[in-house]
Amino acid sequence: MKDSTKQFSKMLGTDSAEKALHMYLYVKYLPHYIYHVSNPAGLVERRPPFEIPSDIEEMIEIITRKVSKDSVSRETSTYHGKIVPLKQAIDLISVNEDIELKNLEKVVPYKIARDIVIKHPLKIAVFDCACRLLHDNPCKPLDVCLAVGDPFASFLIEHEVLNARMVSVDEAVSILESEHRRGHVHGAYFKDVAGDRFYAICNCCACCCIGMKAWTRLKIPIISHSGYIPAISGECDACGECEKICPFGAIRVEDAAVFDTDLCMGCGVCEGACPVGAINLTPDSSKGEPLDIITLLNK
Predict the structure, then answer these.
(1) Which residue, 123, 132, 184, 188, is CA-closest to 150?
(2) Which residues of 140-159 are buried (b: 16+ CB within 10 A; e: fewer)?
(3) pTM
(4) Over the stretch 16-53, which tens digit does the pLDDT of each residue have?
(5) Same domain, yes or no, for 113 and 96?
(6) Domain range spanning residue 89?
(7) Counting Cβ atoms within 10 Å, is residue 136 exposed (0-12), middle (13-18) or buried (19+)?
(8) What is the DSSP letter of 103?
């Protein structure tokens, strides 16, 4: 048994063999797992580009039926994400010491899987996006997902999952910044079989990301609002760049940019795209608390 697999078992406890198996299958065979979670809802375009043993795939299909059923409610969801603007995403991967923050329901508004526990935070692995692999003409590049800390990062490397490789904090920041410029959304993901905790940051595009499509098309609450809303200053010249790039279709431009607060998820892509700096994110308590790791650690 590889060291990272042993770490998973230790993290989940000796009485959680079922969870350990679930986690192993999830990470080891991530594209097939996501395929079976999302295919019944028509959110993917093709099967994964490689095959796995049929008995393994049958187990994954059985497991994901319950995951899909539970995902329709924040009360029962076991697999979900919190949108984080660029600065907060960078702060989250730049933590240089182990941290443990529990029961963050105001930040991560789900009953299950809402902790931030990071061990060996400087271990960061980048790997190919499983969602993009399930589409015929995916966004590029593929290697944009970041596993943060152990045992997650080491597991991906030791099991050679999705071309995973270790990266430095600076390299991880560069990936986040590049994806931000492409108009992609940073999502911090949480899962019950990941010890009820945060384990990865995905850089999500509206065309490929299963979580974003589940929310925008079906209103399945697999992603939650960042806790920020955009504010428009008088500098706005109605150029339309924010409307073009908004991944949630939440902006229209008239005499100035206008935001649909029901559609906007506070990702901050518009803020980065505005050529005159007329858009700034501001906290909005009605949308929940932001995942601002610096603020959380100083409470």
Answers:
(1) 123
(2) eebbbbbbbbbbbbbbbbeb
(3) 0.95
(4) 788 889 999 999 999 999 999 999 999 999 999 999 99
(5) yes
(6) 3-225+292-297
(7) exposed
(8) -
CATH code (residue 278):
3.30.70.20
User: Over the stretch 47-72, which tens digit does the pLDDT of each residue have?
Assistant: 999 999 999 999 999 999 999 999 99
Same domain flag for 24 and 103: yes
Residue 213 tokens read as: 């499509």
SS3 assignment for 246-274:
CCCCCEEECCCEEECCCCCCCCCHHHHHC
Based on the structure, what is the number of domains in the chain?
A: 2
| Residue 98, SS3 per DSSP | coil
CB 71 within 8 A of CB 79: yes
Same domain flag for 151 and 260: no
Question: To which residue do tokens 């339309």 refer?
Answer: 240
111 and 241 housed in the same domain: no
Q: How many alpha carbons fall within 13 Å on the CB side of residue 97? A: 4
Domain match, 242 and 150 both: no
Asked if residue 244 and residue 155 are part of one domain, the reply reads no
